[in-house]
Design a protein that fits this description.
Largest sheet: 3 strands, antiparallel
Distance between the termini: 37 Å
Helix content: 40-55%
Bound molecules: iron/sulfur cluster
Shape: elongated
Order of helices and strands: EEHHEEEEHEEEHHHHHHHH
Mean pLDDT: 86
Low-confidence stretches: 1-7, 282-292
């Protein structure tokens, strides 16, 4: 585990090399009448969390597929290619597409990073403590005058004011999953392309996930009764959290979702039927265990 991510910060880095806890005090205020209003939204690099996407796609009345296509670009979160998404900007303009003349046009549903700014959040997976450890740090960029406003408040109160707690609560299991993947290193190895596609769908494409849990393939493997399925069909947050549990189960073997006894046999049978039905499949005449 790294002791501090700030060890090799260049002199001109906007990150302040001081770890802050919830009870620490910062000096900061952002408001509409400040001279730098909107400066921070004119050159962005904003990573989206699953709950950010859910809020924004709802706000814009788009399906998750439409939102992802219109407003995001993919990037790799680590050297293995763990998929992440960022807000897409125009090729010739690094400003946020949600910035209007009077400020943020999606303010009530703005992403986690925007809510935290000028704080940053850093989560660490620690071997000795029971859970993951969150620490905060200050981001001091030259254009941001909020640091000179005469207001002091604790990190805890700033998080409350910015409505970030709800976002962190809902995304908590997802963040744990990423930390676990990072800290596990070679024991998890390099996940397959298929695992990453699954991770992408469960993390960012809630409409795809809803279709998946109502598919024959899902019903063959997972043992959920009608009462357990109901909230997943109608409530996005319940479905998102279920998706995180499913990811933990599939990627790390943390089993919290009941699986049918004959799940594997059913899966092999169905896959074999699909292969037999496909005249071009090279495995058509293979009668052994599942190959593809
Ligand atoms: S979402 Fe809103 S607050 Fe965030 S960068 Fe865009 S305009 Fe600014
Ligand atoms: S004070 Fe900082 S966060 Fe607020 S508008 Fe100005 S640059 Fe953006």
């Amino acid at each position: 585990m790294t002791d501090s991510p700030f060890e090799n910060l260049p002199n001109n880095s906007p990150l302040q090399p001081t770890k802050l806890s919830l009870d620490d005090t910062i000096q900061f205020r952002c408001h509409k009448d400040i001279a730098c209003f909107n400066e921070c939204c004119k050159r962005i690099d904003i990573t989206l969390t699953p709950y950010d996407i859910l809020r924004l796609k709802k706000r814009l009345d788009l399906s998750s597929t439409e939102f992802l296509a219109q407003h995001t670009v993919p990037y790799e979160m680590d050297a293995h290619g763990m998929p992440g998404v960022k807000i897409k900007t125009a090729d010739d303009n690094p400003a946020c597409p949600f910035l209007g003349d009077n400020g943020c046009t999606v303010y009530e549903d703005r992403p986690t990073v925007c809510r935290y700014y000028a704080l940053g959040l850093m989560s660490m997976h620690t071997e000795n403590s029971k859970g993951d450890e969150d620490t905060y740090f200050l981001i001091k960029e030259d254009h941001c005058l909020g640091h000179y406003e005469p207001r002091r408040l604790t990190v805890q109160d700033y998080r409350k004011e910015q409505g970030v707690e709800e976002y962190d609560d809902i995304n908590r299991e997802w963040r744990q999953l990423i930390l676990k993947k990072r800290s596990a290193g070679p024991t998890i190895g390099n996940p397959s392309k298929r695992s990453f596609q699954f991770f992408f769908m469960l993390s960012y494409n809630i409409d795809g996930l809803r279709k998946f849990i109502q598919s024959d393939g899902f019903a063959e493997v997972y043992d959920l009764d009608a009462a357990a399925m109901e909230p997943l069909k109608t409530d996005d947050v319940s479905l998102l959290k279920f998706g995180f549990r499913l990811l933990k189960q599939v990627l790390f073997g943390e089993n919290t979702i009941p699986v049918k006894d004959d799940a594997m046999q059913q899966r092999v049978k169905r896959r074999r039927e699909q292969i037999q039905a496909d005249p071009d499949n090279p495995n058509k005449h293979y009668d052994g265990p599942e190959m593809v």
